[in-house]
UniProtKB/TrEMBL annotation:
Database matches in SMART domains: VWA
Alphabetically ordered keywords of this record: Membrane, Transmembrane, Transmembrane helix
Name of the protein in question: VWA domain-containing protein
Transmembrane segments: 53-77, 300-319
Domain VWFA residues, every copy: 93-278
PROSITE patterns in the cross-refs: VWFA (PS50234)
Natural source organism: Microbacterium croceum
Length: 321
């Protein structure tokens, strides 16, 4: 647009110069002819009216020329406008940490299904998946390759149909002594967070019924302390919240120690509801500082310049006639 405006100004100046030179030639020719009693001609009302119109036209030419020049200068100076925005940072890492013991099958399938649906709305979030029973296994690390994530979520979810002789979620998760060793599982999930120097929000969606059977290497309290030290928040999903007050309180205390929370799955509360709450908390934590963004806004001035130049050409043409 700026190039077009400059071109129009140059064309207008060229036309004006050409008309001026042509009129100068006519004036020179007129000077050779003498008119007797010219002072009486100047007293005629029609002559005075023509002279007044000509003065007004010349004044208009000067005014339009000045407006065009000033506006062209404004356009060349690149006028700008500011806008204050508050960006929302999507530098978010979410590790799905699923207890795949037999009592957790329905909850695990629901968690996997919810995240399958959420993938279409993710922009920049990295998702990882670690499962555990008596031993933890990382299914895939944190990544924002959503097609890759979707294929693995579907694969793990289908393994809960038990159509294979050895379901995928059994592979590597039964190498320890016991079942639902949640301290080991939470510690393994926390270790899956990379890029420690990056400013990223880190959270664990920790689905377990907290019914430990056996001796784990790391206790739940120790795993929670490790997560807190790594600035990882734990959000626990417990399908039997309240069934055993001591067990529920232990899981809730561990999650809250990391800055997270524990949620109980009831008849009126679904995994989707809980994940929505987690996302709201994360979004609040990731809201960035207000920033002022400057952008070029020459459009109005270019329009004024075009009108001024065209008007200048028209008035010059009328004066010439």
């Amino acid at each position: 647009m700026i190039i077009v405006a400059v071109a129009v100004v140059l064309v207008a100046l060229g036309i004006g110069l050409a008309l001026g030179l042509r009129r100068r030639g006519r004036s020179h020719a007129a000077e050779t002819a003498r008119v007797a009693r010219a002072e009486r001609l100047r007293q005629l009302p029609s002559f005075r009216e023509a002279l007044r119109r000509r003065v007004l036209a010349l004044t208009g030419i000067l005014a339009l020329g000045a407006v065009a020049v000033i506006t062209a200068g404004v356009v060349a100076a690149r006028p700008m406008s500011s806008q204050t925005i508050q960006p929302v940072n999507t530098s978010r890492d979410i590790m799905l940490c699923l207890d795949v013991s037999g009592s957790m099958t329905e909850v695990d399938v629901e968690v996997l299904s919810v995240f399958e649906e959420l993938l279409d709305d993710f922009e920049g979030e990295r998702i990882g998946l670690t499962i555990f029973n008596s031993s933890p296994v990382q299914i895939f690390p944190l990544t924002d390759d959503y097609e890759f994530i979707r294929s693995h979520l579907e694969s793990i979810k289908s393994s809960f149909d038990y159509t294979d002789a050895v379901p995928e979620h059994w592979v590597g998760t039964l190498n320890g002594n016991g079942a639902s060793l949640i301290g080991d599982g939470l510690a393994a999930c926390t270790m899956g967070f990379d890029r420690p120097d990056d400013e990223r929000s880190r959270s664990v969606i920790f689905a377990t019924d907290n019914e430990v059977n056996g001796a784990s290497i790391v206790t739940l309290e120790e795993a929670a302390a490790y997560a807190a030290a790594k600035e990882v928040r734990v959000f626990a999903l417990n399908p039997v919240q309240g069934k055993d007050a001591d067990v529920s309180a232990e899981l809730a205390a561990a999650a809250e120690a990391t800055g997270g929370a524990a949620f109980g799955l009831r008849d009126t509360t679904t995994v989707s509801d809980i994940v929505a709450q987690v996302q709201e908390q994360e979004a609040t934590a990731l809201r960035g500082e207000a920033q002022i963004v400057w952008t070029d806004t020459p459009n109005l001035w270019i329009a004024v310049l075009m009108v001024a130049v065209l008007s200048f050409i028209i008035v010059v043409w009328r004066v010439r006639l």
